[in-house]
Specification:
The protein has 278 residues and is α/β, with parallel strands linked by helices. It has six helices and 16 strands. A six-stranded mixed beta sheet has the order 1-16-2-3-4-5, covered by helices on one side.
């Protein structure tokens, strides 16, 4: 694991630690790094869990042994905010309550304001689509006087939901808040691959992950990313737009068993927002 550092211009001074794609990995190395660096806030941009489906009747966040301890440690270091990625697709309200008990603020298509900044979390389209399909199935079961079995319900399979399928209407209010605006958005392809693109919205800083740095990296280029395909553009680093910037984390783990990460170390990203132009 490495520490990746960025400095960007903004309204005042703020140090952000950015974690993405932990996938239930042992996060002690990242915790030690953050304890030493003492960021003002910690943000987790999705895919904290590994399993999309439970294997028993336990809550997903309970069954994955590193998830809740990692969140609790983060919350003890600094105010911590989390958004939902595609691997959180099947978390339910009971999971969310356990996350809240760690002290972490879950931003599920909503934002919160502080004196220095406003921070929001755009939930993955995978989650939004799952919720809509689940509601349709529950309505059908109710009409048919059926019953649900188990804590989770698995709808029909789906593949690659798009930005249009997110619940993004709240962003219209978010971009009007007169503070430094930070958006946690797991998918970097939401930045400028198709409407409604985040690059066209008045957001100072978008933080993303998901791409795992492109899996293999040679000469600064990643080879593959979900949602972008081969030789993707948005896998790491800083990307500038008309209104603000997007910074992508390469993430903390690998979930592609047949394609290990090569020349692509995991990372904790640190961002210093400083007054003035950079």
């Amino acid at each position: 694991m490495i520490e990746k550092n960025y400095s960007i211009s903004g309204d005042g001074f703020l140090t952000i630690a950015h974690i993405s794609d932990l996938h239930n990995k042992d996060g002690r190395q990242a915790i030690e790094s953050m304890r030493n660096r003492k960021p003002d806030i910690i943000v987790i941009t999705g895919d904290l869990v590994l399993r999309r489906r439970p294997t028993d009747d336990m809550l997903i966040v309970q069954s994955e042994k590193n998830v809740l301890p990692f969140l609790s440690e983060c919350a003890q270091i600094a105010p911590t905010y989390m958004s939902l990625g595609n691997h959180e697709v099947m978390l339910n309200q009971d999971d969310f309550e356990l996350i809240a008990q760690t002290g972490v603020e879950l931003l599920d298509n909503r934002f919160v304001k502080t004196d220095k900044y406003v921070i929001g979390g755009l939930t993955s389209a995978y989650v939004s689509r799952y919720r809509r399909e689940l509601a349709e199935m529950e309505a059908w079961e109710k009409a048919a006087e059926g019953t649900r079995a188990g804590r989770y319900h698995i709808p029909k399979p789906f593949w690659r939901p798009r930005m249009q399928e997110t619940d993004y209407a709240w962003l219209d209010t978010f971009v009007k808040v007169p503070r430094y605006r930070i958006l946690l958005s797991h998918h970097p392809e939401y930045w400028c691959m198709e409407e409604p693109m985040l690059i066209n919205r008045n957001i100072d800083l978008v933080l993303s992950g998901h791409a795992h740095g492109g899996q293999f990296r040679l000469f600064g280029q990643g080879f593959f990313a979900p949602g972008q395909g081969w030789f993707p553009k948005y896998t790491s680093g800083i990307h500038r737009g008309k209104y603000g910037r997007m910074i992508i984390s390469k993430g903390m783990a690998n979930t592609v068993r047949v394609a290990p990460r090569l020349f692509n170390p995991t990372e904790v990203v640190y961002i210093e927002v400083v007054r003035g132009e950079l």
